[in-house]
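User: Hi! I have a protein structure encoded as tokens and I'd like to know what sequence might fold into it. I'm fairly new to this, so please keep things simple.
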């Protein structure tokens, strides 16, 4: 059984009122050990009572797919985007659809990415070499970029998937004190 339900795309039964079922929170973060799995069920505008009943039915189905407890929230677009919804950013920027396996925001034509700008100024040559090995690998071993799907955009600038951000930052902190991060939404282009 896996924490990343979105990768398995379990066969669920749900009504046409369900727009998406999204996994979000710490269960998506590489290297984390969460207590539970956070799920958001996004509905068309239907009565709250119906949302809650359908969400509980989906929770029962998902509980069979995971050894961790499922924590479920139901939203329509209005309540999802409400300023008082503290889970909004996490759902929009990190959430993965259990139905499609894609980022939730991809339905809006964008893909979330994290850009990490780092500086090697003032570092000794041996530390710069260690940094390069950390990113690119050494002697047939994969580096972080290949292992976790990152890419170098420019010298001093890498782009990674949001769920890998902490893994990269933890490694960068060991060798360089100078870094900054920026979360971006990249427009998807159909060519």
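Assistant: Happy to help. Inverse folding works backwards from shape to sequence: for each of the 191 positions I chose a residue that suits the local structure. Here it is:
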């Amino acid at each position: 059984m896996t924490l990343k339900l979105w990768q398995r795309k379990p066969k669920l039964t749900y009504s046409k009122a369900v727009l998406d079922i999204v996994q979000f929170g710490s269960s998506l973060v590489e290297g984390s050990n969460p207590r539970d799995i956070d799920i958001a069920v996004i509905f068309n505008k239907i009565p709250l009572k119906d949302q809650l009943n359908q969400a509980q039915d989906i929770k029962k189905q998902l509980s069979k797919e995971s050894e961790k407890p499922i924590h479920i929230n139901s939203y329509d677009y209005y309540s999802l985007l409400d300023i008082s919804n503290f889970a909004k950013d996490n759902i929009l920027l990190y959430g993965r659809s259990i139905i499609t396996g894609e980022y939730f925001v991809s339905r809006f034509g964008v893909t979330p990415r994290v850009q990490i700008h780092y500086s090697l100024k003032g570092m000794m040559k041996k530390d710069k070499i260690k940094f390069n090995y950390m990113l690119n690998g050494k002697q047939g071993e994969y580096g972080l970029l290949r292992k976790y799907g990152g890419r170098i955009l420019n010298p001093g600038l890498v782009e990674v998937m949001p769920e890998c951000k902490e893994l990269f930052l933890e490694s960068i902190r060991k060798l360089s004190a100078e870094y900054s991060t920026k979360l971006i939404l990249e427009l998807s282009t159909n060519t």
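A useful reference point when you look it over: Residues 63 and 186 are 33 Å apart (CA to CA). Feel free to ask if any position seems puzzling.
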